Amino acid sequence: LAAAPLAAQEYEYEEYYCEDMVLSLEETESWLRANGPGIWQEVEQIRALEPEYAGDILFEASEVIPCLEEDRAYDPDGFAEMLDIHRLELATERLALQIRATQDADARMKLEQELKQVLSETFDKRLAEEERAVAELEKDLAELKQYVEKRRQHRDTIIEKRLMELADPEHE
């Protein structure tokens, strides 16, 4: 949900956009309060630091939330994990804003330590999500290989059946 990330990142964020499905600002805020209170809290803290940036985040959320809702239906666990990742990304953005605004060296060091911890947690969660996606792809690939092998084994039968379908004058 973070708009235009402020910190340099080692990976690209997955883009979510469900065409023709955008929430109003009120609907977005209501959804976040109900479904992502941690996200809402981060948005509020960012709003206190940089109101315009918080508005950008809410605008992007208005486009992302309908896609998240679609994900919730078929993958509730993945949905919850994605909400947590979004919360962490916003915490990263908030901490970066706070670090840049802080003049006190001790406070800055404490914020940097907190940012490092949040970045570490975010990285680990994203990596786990990617590993889960790889496992799903490997499962799908194994099933496809099995299907292809089965067709290979039944090649002659499949060709014979198709020949009969096409050559049968009754079949049109």
Can you walk through the features of this model?
The chain has 172 residues and is mainly alpha-helical. It is 79% helix and 0% strand. The protein contains 6 helices and no strands. Helix 1 (25-35) packs across helix 2, helix 2 (37-49) packs antiparallel against helix 3 (51-74) and helix 2 packs parallel to helix 4. The longest helix is centred in the last third of the chain and has 49 residues, at 105-153. Residues 2-17 have low confidence and may be disordered.
The profile of the biggest β sheet is: none
Whole-number mean pLDDT: 88
Given as residue ranges, the uncertain stretches (5+ residues, pLDDT < 50) are 2-17
Cα distance spanning the termini: 54 Å
Q: How many distinct beta strands?
A: 0
Computed CA radius of gyration, to the nearest angstrom:
24 Å
Query: What class would the helix/strand composition place it in?
Result: mainly alpha
Helix coverage percent? over 70%
Series of secondary-structure elements, N-terminal to C-terminal: HHHHHH
Counting DSSP H or I runs of 4 or more residues, the number of helices is 6
Shape: elongated
Into which percentage range does the β-strand content fall? Answer: under 5%
